[in-house]
Amino acid sequence: MNTLNTTVTSEAEMPEENVVPVQEEKPAETVIEEGKTVGRPFSDDAKFKLRNVEVFYGQDRAIKNISLDIARNEVIAFIGPSGCGKSTFLRCLNRMNDSIDICRVKGSLHLDDQDIYDPKRDVVELRARVGMVFQKPNPFPKSIYDNVAYGPRIHGLANRKSDLDDIVENSLRKAGLWEEVKDRLDATATGMSGGQQQRLCIARAIAVSPEVVLMDEPCSALDPIATAKVEELIAELSESYTIVIVTHSMQQAARVSHRTAYFHLGHLVEVNETNKVFTSPEHELTESYITGRFG
Ligand SMILES: Nc1ncnc2c1ncn2[C@@H]1O[C@H](COP(=O)(O)OP(=O)(O)OP(=O)(O)O)[C@@H](O)[C@H]1O
Ligand SMILES: [Mg+2]
């Protein structure tokens, strides 16, 4: 006969000292203090001064009381999980959100001490000063040459054809595209590969010599060689321009940026020197993200 002891001692019958209390984990959201960003969100030499910024899509608050300075000639990277508001916040900087009907921006946003949202402000002039490169390349259905020459023509930056030629060549060179397209400048831009189109859009953005370039995941469609060229360009541009780059690549943020800003559920949780963010983050949410525990 089988004499196996099948008696089960239920937890309730166990002596109390054997019960290990279960530690309840705090939900991550509870540790975010609204409007409070740890680290170094401010600068003595601000190009952008952004205070108490909130962005609503209808009733939904996508950006929750964010205050940040973006310094002159700095490269700042915006990182954080999908949907945390990086693109929304970036688009406030040149009023790209204006084109979304249900979107409302509140707070104080200044570029060189001028109110970005002043109703009297010329938005075309603002966007010439604050250029943008989108995640998906969006070349105009025009020739390669005309794509790059478009902005300089509108803003009257070249008096002679040879000046315009120089701007087009220089911009294409900086974007790492010149060698590939110099013999077919009249070809239509929409016939280029995705990666070439993206570099063309970068050339188009820098052709008007903006003071700031906003880049929303500019390398997500690029191969490693084109990505390296864009990163070189960022380093070169940062000598005279201010650059804000949204990226999902932490390696990219670490390679190109001076400071890194970590966003979470519409909050700006931490801003610090990039090196510090990736080696010794101050906030536990930043640490969880960079160590891959979520996002
Ligand atoms: N045009 C829009 N209309 C309504 N809600 C929007 C719109 N654009 C963004 N949102 C909402 O705002 C929040 C922030 O979105 P946003 O695109 O800024 O995030 P993100 O950090 O850039 O994400 P991802 O890394 O996926 O690009 C999300 O909840 C999103 O659903
Ligand atoms: Mg985005």
TrEMBL record:
Q: Name one Pfam family in it.
A: ABC_tran
List residues of the ABC transporter domain. Answer: 48-290
Q: What SMART domains does the record tag this protein with?
A: AAA
- GO BP, sorted A to Z: phosphate ion transmembrane transport
Q: Name one GO molecular function term.
A: ATP binding
**Record carries keyword Nucleotide-binding:** yes
Q: Which UniProt keywords apply?
A: ATP-binding, Nucleotide-binding, Phosphate transport, Transport
| Gene Ontology, cellular component aspect | membrane
Q: Which NCBIfam families match?
A: 3a0107s01c2
Q: What is this protein called?
A: Phosphate ABC transporter ATP-binding protein, PhoT family
Give the taxonomic lineage as stored in the record: Bacteria, Pseudomonadati, Pseudomonadota, Gammaproteobacteria, Pseudomonadales
